[in-house]
Amino acid sequence: MDEKLLELARKGDVSAQVTLAEAFLKEGNLEEAYKWAKEASKQDSDQAELMLGYFYHHGLKVEQDLNKAKEWYKKAADQDNALACVNLGLLFEKEEKYEDAIYWFIKASDLGYADAQYIVGTYFEKGETVEQDYEIAFNLYYQAAKQGQIAALSTLGRHYYSGTILVQDFKKAVEFLKEAAKKDDIESMRLLGQCYLNGQGVEENSEQFAYWTKKAADQGDATPQAILGTCLLRGFKVKQDNDLAFELLNKAPEQGFPPAMEAVAYCYEHGLGVTQNAVAAELWYNKAKESKE
Question: pTM of this prediction?
Answer without folding.
Answer: 0.88
